Amino acid sequence: MAKGSFEASAPGKVILLGEHFVVFGKPALVMALDRRARVRVKLLELQADNIKVHSLNIPNASPAELQPIKEAAIKAMEFLGLRKGLEITVNSDIPISAGLGSSAAVSVATIAAVGGLFGVRFTKEDLCRLALEAERLVHKNPSGIDPTIATYGGILLFEKGKPPEPVKLDLDFQLIIGNTGIARSTGEMVAKVGLLQLYYPEIFESLLEGAHRLVLEALEALRASDLEGLGRLFNVNHGLLSAIGVSDISLERLVYAARAAGAFGAKLTGGGGGGCMIALAEAGRLDQVVQAIRKAGGEAFIAAPSERGVMLEA
Amino acid sequence: MAKGSFEASAPGKVILLGEHFVVFGKPALVMALDRRARVRVKLLELQADNIKVHSLNIPNASPAELQPIKEAAIKAMEFLGLRKGLEITVNSDIPISAGLGSSAAVSVATIAAVGGLFGVRFTKEDLCRLALEAERLVHKNPSGIDPTIATYGGILLFEKGKPPEPVKLDLDFQLIIGNTGIARSTGEMVAKVGLLQLYYPEIFESLLEGAHRLVLEALEALRASDLEGLGRLFNVNHGLLSAIGVSDISLERLVYAARAAGAFGAKLTGGGGGGCMIALAEAGRLDQVVQAIRKAGGEAFIAAPSERGVMLEA
Prior knowledge:
Two copies of one chain form a homodimer. In chain A, 42% of the residues lie in helices and 23% in strands. By secondary structure, the first copy, chain A, is an alpha+beta fold.
């Protein structure tokens, strides 16, 4: 039987290249961050059906904000043929509403923790699928990239409907993440891009082809430990994202500030229309880029890839 | 024989879509502006070989700035088998060093005026070719688009090595031109784009294909008097120009300010890296967009297409 409580964690993410185009079947490169969501679930023996959720990071979270976490727990219990009362406590150092995969990391960790609570270790495939189903109840048209990277960790070549392909690295590197502080709606951005494709299918096809080739070149650059080349490809990818209408002036300010501070390259990451950007720079210049982004009005921090996907921390 | 002096004029231009990609053999849409360079040439009977140049707009112009005008006059006289002393006076309302074709307009007008002075009316083909040869002595790798539009006027579908194709319009429209005030070097930008093509020929090929399709769509939109559609295509084209590295933060500021003020679309125009941007908006909103661009730090004015190419004003 279940012991009293169980904890699991999962990482946030940044999309290195290929966001949005991934919705149209193109590959993307996604990286797990060294920032994690930790979720503790506790059995409420006497309160069947009652699921209480607390977030230590958003003390005043609205019920709507906590709903996805509930949905994830319910999905996990449905899969196990159970329905119990739970108390769920989230403690995360992934910035929220920033396109850094906070929501999927919480979902994946919740499902893993619920499994652990009842003595079941989900396969990664099941974890990922359950988290995606829970996300679908809340977000529109998610590509599945967020739960996948939260589950597997590392750097993945991701393509819809295919098993994710881990990218082996010889390279220890860090990147800079800049947050515009403007909450974005990935759903709205995805819808906007969909309209563009409807209006101009042939132009869009060329952009898709360009994005595809970009990701393949970036994969080569990563495997060759060529951060400078990867940065150049960031710049090109950022332009393609501007072309499909998902950049904005808040992102451009941070992107150009990073480049002017000597970054190899910079681009928006994730849904766009606000949210975050990423930049690559040589190790000695990371702080300079962070300062430049702050001066341009963003929050900024240095992050590294993390090999660790979902983890049980019983 | 020649009378004492002769005047000719030619228009400035904006590239509507396709700049940079035109260097690689793709079509571009270019529009003559209702701003002109007027050039008066006067025979200096007693001073063979002496060419004096004055610009009424740049009273302190350096000899290097005036050299292209001299070269144009020399080209015209060479073609006529002459070498005479001339006094050349330029009076232009085209902003200079802004990518608005000031230099080519002056060259074309100079050549036409020199012809007129000696009783010769150059064909448009000859005018255009002589101006291009004169430009080649000064600028690197000019596509020929500037002397062509300065000669023919109107709106042209331009492709390197083909006769320019006039675009017939049912439509009276105006657009907004915003100037970052940052002097740009088209040559540097062209070289930067050339490097990108060398590094990533396949990605670049997709971008070229996208730019080609954009111009064809834009031609349809123009012919259908669909300014809103043309604006949307401006936005996509701007992203492609960002992808090839020729935008900068000064341009992004003006572009996003115009869009936020309700423009149908906005893009950089010409070489990039500073210089100008253009925006389309409904007639009632033009002033609002102009104000927004000024507030964002640019100079701005409203311009219209001009059917008039080079004109003799004897």
